[in-house]
């Protein structure tokens, strides 16, 4: 007989398999085929920031920026209480519900500002079962999504080896990248030098309704610093919201 925790994992595994059947790993929008992304006007970013010392209460943040000039068009911050436990490989079941909530509020109140593509602070296909947070959120929102992680997820044979570090050293200018190949040979993402001033790459992977090549080009075009501006602004604004609400730490 399975324990409650084992039953939960089994249920989440089944849900991931079902959602993965709806995943699209190719471009679906006309603007994605343009070298200059002609027709793209709104890019979104989402993030969750936690109160220090509290892994249950967080600020769910959505920003929508204009493209290509990265000016703020919309922002929403909402305090949420996470109810699902954290289990490695199943982060989406914990973080997706509040992020979907702020997206649905925008869709209901100001649909003209819905992002045409969403940047997610986390992985997409570059995941244990090739269905990370960016895939989960992309499929459920039906938005083109790009996963951008700041740290390497060591998965499917991709490890922080001497060869990996050597490849990072070979990234000389912004826009340089190299593939993240699983042990099977399947390309799960790209390590991207996103700005000339950054010594560390970001790890880009497909979330939904976009090709890897397009995701990498778009990520680079949205970077003023190491992290693409939609994610960077979501992170800055969520942390500032928490500082204002809880200047002395957790209530």
TrEMBL record:
GO terms for cellular component: cytoplasmic stress granule; nucleolus. Its cofactor is Mg(2+). Keywords: Cytoplasm, DNA-binding, Endonuclease, Hydrolase, Magnesium, Metal-binding, Nuclease, Nucleus, RNA-binding. It is found in: Cytoplasm, Stress granule; Nucleus, Nucleolus. Coiled coil: none annotated. GO terms for biological process: DNA repair. One of its GO terms (molecular function) is DNA binding. Its main location: cytoplasm. CDD domains: Endonuclease_V. HAMAP family: Endonuclease_5. Monomer. Interacts with PABPC1; the interaction is RNA-dependent and stimulates ENDOV activity. Endoribonuclease that specifically cleaves inosine-containing RNAs: cleaves RNA at the second phosphodiester bond 3' to inosine. Active against both single-stranded and double-stranded RNAs. Has strong preference for single-stranded RNAs (ssRNAs) toward double-stranded RNAs (dsRNAs). Cleaves mRNAs and tRNAs containing inosine. Also able to cleave structure-specific dsRNA substrates containing the specific sites 5'-IIUI-3' and 5'-UIUU-3'. Belongs to the endonuclease V family. This is Endonuclease V. It comes from Electrophorus electricus. The gene is ENDOV.
């Amino acid at each position: 007989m399975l324990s409650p925790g084992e039953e939960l994992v089994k249920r989440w595994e089944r849900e991931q398999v079902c959602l993965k059947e709806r995943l699209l790993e190719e471009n679906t929008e006309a603007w994605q085929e343009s070298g200059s992304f002609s027709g793209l006007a709104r890019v979104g970013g989402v993030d969750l920031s936690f109160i220090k010392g509290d892994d249950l209460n967080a600020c769910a943040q959505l920003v929508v920026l204009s493209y290509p000039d990265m000016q703020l068009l919309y922002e929403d911050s909402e305090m949420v209480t996470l109810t699902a436990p954290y289990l490695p490989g199943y982060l989406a079941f914990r973080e997706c519900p509040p992020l979907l909530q702020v997206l649905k509020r925008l869709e209901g109140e100001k649909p003209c500002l819905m992002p045409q593509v969403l940047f997610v602070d986390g992985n997409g296909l570059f995941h244990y079962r090739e269905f990370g947070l960016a895939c989960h959120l992309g499929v459920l929102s039906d938005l083109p999504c790009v996963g951008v992680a700041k740290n390497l997820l060591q998965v499917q044979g991709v490890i922080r080896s001497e060869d990996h570090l050597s490849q990072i050293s070979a990234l000389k200018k912004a826009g340089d990248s190299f593939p993240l190949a699983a042990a099977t040979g399947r390309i799960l993402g790209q390590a991207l030098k996103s700005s000339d001033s950054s010594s560390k790459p970001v790890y880009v992977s497909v979330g939904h309704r976009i090709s890897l090549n397009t995701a990498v080009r778009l990520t680079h075009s949205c970077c003023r610093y190491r992290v693409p501006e939609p994610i960077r602004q979501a992170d800055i604004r969520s942390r500032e919201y928490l500082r204002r609400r809880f200047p002395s730490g957790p209530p």
